Amino acid sequence: MFAPHAHLSPASRSHFTRRRFLRDLSMYSAAGAAGLGLGGSLPFGAALAADAQGMRKRGKAMIVLWMAGAPSQMETFSPKPDHTNGGGTETIQTAIPGVEFAAGWEKMAAAAGDLAVIRSMTNNEGNHQRASYQLHTGYSPTGSVRHPSVASGIVQQIAPEEFNLPASVTIGNGGNNLANIGGGFLGVQYDPLTVPRAGQLPSDVRPAQGELNERRVRSRLSLMNKLDSSFAARGGGRVVENHREIYQQAGNLMLDPNLDVFTLDDEPQEVKDSYGDSEFGRGCLLARRLVESGVTYVEVRMGGWDTHDDNFERVKNNASQVDPAFSTLIADLKSRGLLDDTLVLWTGEFGRTPKVNARGGRDHFPKAFNSVLAGGGVRGGQVIGSTTADGMAVEDRPVKVDDLLRSCCHALGVDADHEHMSPLGRPLRVVDKGEVVQELFS
């Protein structure tokens, strides 16, 4: 197994965080469940329902590293050095014997013992907006319903109930195709808080010095609720409910003593440097801070992967930012005892064409691409699936989007078959189809 960076020493046993408290509490919760005879005697969904509160206590979390625009599999984790489609990309050995990554990913290659690389991802959606929607909701977009994100289903089932910080946070501006993806018909309370720039407090979240105290904030929220009541009584109930929810969440966040978790001022400079001097690197560092503080779902977005032209130079530049940030995030979570309970997923919406176009770029290619997972009970040090020698098709162990999302739910203890009633009166599951990729956990 890959050893964490030397300068990221394990957290002190006396270092108290909400996440550490929840994780320690889970040991007693698990022991209690065993004493009640719940050890595998129930079907998966029934066991989840029986232990729902226990799931909330375990402090499970997920970090998604979203590569908006679709990264080339050939220049990341599925190179083809022995074929003309490989484009001349050089390869490097990884910590997994016999497995190579593309050059430029040296730190990730060293961390490969903690990674599960799926080289056989496949899909039918080759449009950015449609594929991004599907990767985030488990459904193809329709004009009749705005589906809740899978993040919403995760937060609904396992996020702590009494928690002022947002249960779901999105970091970065990459991914314009995801602007309307959030709670969907579940409501605005499941929309993520968006933080455009890591290291800065969310806009207008802190009142001017001395202007408001907690009593006045609560008083104003109460007055607003009274003013809304008459409108709600005249048929605006759902609008008022969403309005109140937004302001209540904002008020709670303003008053939360842990608000400084969004800044990076108290982080040692050597830790900041290890993540890299980039927006994405700071986003990954903030993601670690958030899950350590008890946030359930964090997505860090990075754009610039739609490489229809100048593919090789653009991917090289992107890799120089992602490689140190991604590898350090894994090492940092591991050194702090958080990796076992935190699932990390690196992916984009699809892949790029194996054949290089006339502009030195690669075009949209959903038939075969790669995703990478770590932590959360996933067995590292393995590659799942493969593509043909020319990269044009999946050769072994195809993994569909539904399979990937269902596997993420499984890792977090989330019931992917849980049904939500849509506004059209149709029950919709958290993830509609698919099967758990058992190799990830065996």
From TrEMBL:
It comes from the Bacteria. Transmembrane segments: none annotated. Pfam families: DUF1501 (PF07394). This is DUF1501 domain-containing protein. The lineage of its organism: Bacteria, Pseudomonadati, Planctomycetota, Planctomycetia, Planctomycetales.
